[in-house]
Amino acid sequence: MRLICESTSEAEYKDANLPWFEYLESHYLFFSTMLASKGAPSFRSQFLEFLIEEFKDEVNITKGKNKGLNEDVILQFIVTTYVGIVEWWITNEMPYPPHVMADQVGILLERNL
Predict the structure, then answer these.
(1) What is each CA distance from 30 to 25, 33, 93, in whole angstroms?
(2) Which of 10, 12, 15, 19 has the fewest C-beta atoms lying within 10 Å of its C-beta?
(3) What is the pTM of this model?
């Protein structure tokens, strides 16, 4: 997953999300099992920590729409939302293809970061 982040670090959010959702789709059995198991809280916690590291450089509170807001609050909002969307998508048996999820999540990230 870190390799996906590194390879898409310069891309727009919509484009950067596509490899993520394709990866999640191709490993559906693993992720659906992890989210349904007793280990789900641990998996979720590790996924949150991973995303915090990946998104922390994206948060800018010095200008624009997030000027004056708390960086920690924005970061928590973004990563918990992202994890929630992934959980919803997987537990609902991926009702939309990866490209739709990438576009939709990309637009939402652009609005908030």
Answers:
(1) 10, 5, 13
(2) 10
(3) 0.83
